[in-house]
Design a protein that fits this description.
The protein has about 290 residues and is α/β, with parallel strands linked by helices. It folds into two domains: about 1-75, Chemotaxis receptor methyltransferase CheR, N-terminal domain (Chemotaxis Receptor Methyltransferase Cher, domain 1), CATH 1.10.155; about 85-290, Vaccinia Virus protein VP39 (Rossmann fold), CATH 3.40.50. The chain has eleven helices and eleven strands. α1 runs parallel beside α3. The longest helix has 20 residues, at about 85-105. The protein is globular, with a radius of gyration of 21 Å. The termini are far apart. The protein binds S-adenosylmethionine.
Length: about 290
């Protein structure tokens, strides 16, 4: 198949799929020729290479290392938006944050992780919710981490400036918390307090993870669907490993955690998981500390 002048041979197509799978865990279907053509043809041209066979050979060399990063960036799917799948944020607000805020006030370290954060909308939505529920959050040790494999979207996340249309669908109460009103450039700018609470870093799920945890909240949504079952299982196990004893894991609505984690994690809301007896443990802790309202 060719796109403009550029030929995508079966060998190059299969080679690119295999390379992507090895480097990222992403599984492209056999029907994804047109996706590769539309997303990568301009990269092949930019490198002044004659076809995808030459492009594949190039990204496998040392000189092609930077281009390999751009190839991966081009082949990831980064769809996201502020407060996507809002039920998770409702649960976070009503069932999770109140206890975390108490812990933060007692001096505990609280970490919330948006794993596979794309251009940052998910991480900033979490930060906005934290600030809404706890306006003094910045005076305590409560922080949000956003990570992704795509270096271009991570850069956009760090900059925190989005097209005006990104506000569509965001509840009115949140627009003031999220966006700086004093800008007049047709774009929306994330407010400084949210940027101060949030850090963005590179993390590839199929390489060693540069995070230790524990995380009291992990959002890992709409990324495992792109992986084969073995990679998915590795991601869920890794997340379970860094999830706090009383932590909460949110996954995408079309995703399922592996069956072999059913002893470690149980459903407590739609596509939301905690460790078994977590609720009981927290209640006992509160009763021991004299607070019998939980
Ligand atoms: C569809 S977006 C999901 C964004 C956000 N979590 C949401 O639900 O709106 C999927 C993200 O996963 C990232 N991703 C894909 N493979 C990855 C990997 N191996 N390690 C880390 N992130 C990866 C992509 O770069 C992309 O930004």
């Amino acid at each position: 198949m060719s796109h403009g002048e550029i030929l995508l041979s079966t060998a190059a197509f299969n080679g690119i799929r295999a390379l992507l799978k090895r480097k990222t865990g992403i599984h492209l279907e056999e029907s994804s020729n047109s996706m590769i053509l539309s997303r990568l043809s301009s990269r092949v041209r930019r490198q002044r290479l004659p076809d995808f066979d030459a492009y594949l050979a190039y990204v496998c060399t040392d000189e092609g290392a930077q281009e390999l990063i751009q190839m991966i960036n081009a082949l990831t799917t980064n769809t996201t938006r502020f407060f996507r799948e809002p039920g998770h944020f409702d649960l976070l607000e009503t069932d999770v944050l109140p206890k975390l805020i108490e812990k933060a006030k007692e001096g505990e370290r609280i970490r919330l992780w948006s794993a596979a954060c794309s251009s940052g909308e998910e991480a900033y939505s979490i930060a906005a919710l934290v600030l809404k529920c706890f306006p003094d959050a910045l005076d305590f040790d409560i922080r949000i981490l956003g990570t992704d494999i795509d270096t271009n979207t991570l850069q956009r996340a760090k900059i925190g400036i989005y097209p005006n249309g990104s506000m569509n669908g965001v509840q009115e109460g949140y627009t003031d918390i999220l966006f700086d009103p004093d800008r007049d450039d047709g774009k929306v700018h994330i407010r400084q307090p949210l940027r101060d609470m949030t850090t963005f870093r590179y993390l590839n799920f199929v390489e060693p993870w540069p995070v230790r945890g524990p995380f009291q909240v992990i959002f890992c949504r709409n990324v495992a669907i792109y992986m084969d079952p073995e990679t998915q299982s590795g991601i869920w196990k890794g997340l379970e490993n860094v999830l706090d004893q009383d932590g909460t894991l949110f996954i995408g609505h079309s995703e399922r955690i592996s069956a072999d984690l059913s002893l470690q994690l149980e459903l407590f809301g739609p596509t939301s998981f905690r460790r078994p007896l977590s609720f009981l443990r927290q209640s006992i802790k509160h009763m021991e500390s004299g607070d019998v309202t939980t």
